[in-house]
Structure prediction request, 141 residues.
Amino acid sequence: MINLLFSCNPHFSKYPALVQDAIFIIESRYAFLEGIDDLSLRLEVSKPHLIRVFSKSSGSSPGQYLIAVRLEHAKKMLRADSHVPLEIIAAACGYSNANYFAKAFKKQTGTTPSAFACAANLSTRDGILPDSNEVDVIYAL
Prediction:
């Protein structure tokens, strides 16, 4: 499980400036980042340095955090409308194709995007929100 560090977190300032900048870019540009190589270029630091500082400060790698942010947005889209094609959701969340997106989604959540959307649709129809314990959102780290 990855803790989403949200830049609006009141404890956000405890992270080094590099990590704060990385989190901000990931959260605001997740759909357009081509990966950690792209992130390190935008931050003008080496990839190993970014990974080392981010991991030491947050407890997860920037790659894991990027995946968590992308999949959290995918879950929101799947909950909102289960009829949106996976190709659209994949592209909107930064994945190059629906097959790769589906594999990443299943690896992180244990279920397929289609099954998640169906469960979310049934749960919201019955007035019950689906479980989202795959990713814990922590506001005070």
Q: What stands out?
A: Helices lie at 17-29, 36-43, 47-58, 62-80, 86-92, 98-109, 113-125.
